[in-house]
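> forwarded from #structure-qc
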């Protein structure tokens, strides 16, 4: 039995959204709040017109209140709706306090139909837009308790059920199956239950609908991100497979060429005619190797070429001099680029080395944007043609200087955004291809560092 009660308690808490951390706010707050101002002003005008129309056909004939007070009370009841979505709980509290105070002093004002609509809209808005759901339940519950207490007070201390029945001329007769006093009380109770229940349920259903829509939008965005990442991962995996295949092709043909070249060298002095066969094999193997390499490289470039062709773009491969342009395409990340090099040194970096460093910076900035809480990053490009000193780490790798790119950020890993690791794997493969060194990992002072240094050739291109 306690479990049954706990289950119902949990269901009620879930329906009211008490344990939900979600807060409903308008998609365009400035526009929504501006519309509320116009709505509240319109209700003020309608209430004033309604009060005058009611006064004109004698509705306030037995009420001694001055006309200006009737207008003022009607306007004050509707004016809080101007802030119904900005401060929903404050508005419903003020509106229902107005209902109680005016209902006890000038009750005929509160019965005006426009003000009845105002009370409904205020209650509906509180349930639909309150950001603190626990406070909403308390405020709305107190308002409902006060309303039904006011009704009971009116029946008990006001005109009384017997007096109302007497005014209706039903004191000595019973037109239906139910006693007139009981029927009148039940009828008013039914109307108020429908009124308040309708406002509360409609507001809560609207809150749940907005919550579900936002969840669906978030799920759709997550699915789209995951789909894009899976597609990217599939492309990278396929390119790695083709790269291995390219390595096998080159290794096979170069091995055959080497063997045939050795055979031709031994035979060319003794039997030149016999050496022609190995040389012909070398010619065939070299041509076949070039053909297969072109096909595999075309496949590797196919996806990017398709994207560029669709956009009508035909651009050369980027180089080290293009790294500063990455600061303009980082999706909101504030990027500072610093170049440390003599004049013309960056442009003189060979194309393959410049492309590898450019891709390294591009991948590192993409990882900062996707997987880090950092709002900014710093990119340092260095080119140094001086020979490395013997006491420097890996000095034997940079006898003719180096080109380097370093990406730093001060963020923390973002929860739930772990990547596949394929991007950094590609960075390390590029470093290994050029015989360079890489420093990839978290910094002791916080943040993350990706630094790649590649050796420069002996002669300038």
């Amino acid at each position: 039995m306690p479990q049954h009660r706990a289950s119902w308690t949990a269901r009620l808490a879930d329906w009211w959204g008490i344990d939900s951390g979600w807060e409903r706010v308008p998609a365009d707050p400035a526009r929504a709040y501006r519309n509320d101002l116009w709505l509240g002003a319109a209700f003020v005008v309608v209430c004033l017109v309604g009060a005058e129309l009611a006064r004109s056909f004698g509705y306030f004939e037995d009420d001694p209140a001055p006309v200006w007070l009737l207008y003022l009370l009607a306007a004050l009841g509707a004016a809080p709706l101007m802030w119904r979505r900005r401060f929903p709980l404050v508005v419903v509290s003020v509106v229902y306090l107005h209902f109680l105070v005016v209902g006890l002093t000038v009750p005929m004002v509160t019965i005006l139909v426009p003000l009845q609509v105002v009370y409904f809209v205020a209650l509906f808005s509180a349930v639909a837009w309150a950001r603190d759901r626990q406070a909403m339940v308390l405020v709305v519950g107190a308002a409902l308790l006060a309303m039904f207490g006011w009704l009971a007070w009116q029946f008990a201390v006001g005109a009384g059920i017997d007096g109302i029945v007497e005014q209706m001329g039903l004191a000595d007769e019973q037109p239906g199956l139910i006693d007139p006093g009981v029927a009148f009380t039940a009828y008013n109770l039914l109307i108020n239950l429908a009124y308040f229940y309708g406002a509360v349920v409609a507001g809560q259903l609207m809150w749940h609908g907005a919550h579900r829509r936002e969840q669906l939008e978030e799920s759709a965005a997550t699915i789209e991100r995951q789909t894009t990442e899976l597609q990217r991962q599939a492309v990278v995996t396929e390119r790695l497979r083709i790269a291995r295949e390219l390595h096998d092709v080159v290794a096979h043909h170069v091995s055959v060429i080497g063997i045939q070249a050795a055979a031709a060298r031994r035979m060319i002095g003794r039997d030149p005619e016999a050496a022609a066969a190995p040389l012909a094999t070398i010619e065939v193997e070299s041509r076949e190797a070039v053909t297969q390499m072109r096909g595999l490289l075309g496949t590797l470039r196919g996806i990017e070429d398709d994207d560029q062709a669709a956009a009508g773009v035909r651009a050369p491969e980027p180089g080290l001099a293009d790294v500063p342009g990455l600061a303009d395409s980082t999706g909101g990340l504030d990027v500072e680029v610093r170049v440390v090099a003599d004049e013309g040194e960056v442009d003189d970096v060979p194309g393959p080395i410049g492309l590898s460093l450019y891709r390294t910076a591009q991948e590192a900035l993409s990882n900062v944007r996707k997987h880090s809480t950092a709002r900014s990053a710093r990119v340092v490009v260095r080119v140094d043609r001086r020979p490395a000193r013997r006491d420097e780490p890996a000095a034997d790798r940079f006898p003719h200087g180096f080109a380097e790119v370093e990406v730093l950020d001060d963020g923390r890993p973002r929860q739930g955004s772990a990547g596949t690791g394929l991007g950094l794997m590609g960075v390390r493969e590029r470093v290994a291809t050029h015989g360079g060194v890489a420093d990839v990992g978290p910094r002791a002072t916080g943040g993350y560092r990706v630094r790649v240094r590649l050796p420069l050739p002996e002669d300038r291109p």
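QC bot note: The chain has a mean pLDDT of 79. The chain has three domains: 15-223, 227-310, 320-455.
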